[in-house]
Amino acid sequence: MGLIYDSPALAALTLTRLAAEESEGPGALEGRMRGYLGDLEQRNGAEYLELVAIALARAHFNAVDDLARATGATAEALLDAAEVEALEST
Questions:
Q1: How far apart are CA 12 and CA 87, in angstroms?
Q2: Phi/psi zone of residue 45: left (φ > 0), alpha (ψ -120 to 50 degrees), beta?
Q3: What was the pLDDT predicted at 46?
Q4: Interval 11-32 mean pLDDT
Q5: What is the pLDDT of residue 3?
Q6: Nearest to residue 51, comparing CAs of 41, 42, 38?
Q7: pTM value?
């Protein structure tokens, strides 16, 4: 896992893989993600977690933008819909 600690983008990818596993059903994976983030923070500091969050946001936007191009929607409309869904589920 050494490379993951050296690259925020790879750390973000690992979190995404954990989220994908979690999507198969709720369980202890949230604990795995928290543990992973805690380990990253311990090894690299809190500033590193900021870089991981930025990498996640960029990757998320790229996925939304790809979906927008594939569906003919706009990225803005898809982000608006995701925001409304998140607001309604809280």
A1: 24
A2: left
A3: 93
A4: 77
A5: 47
A6: 41
A7: 0.79
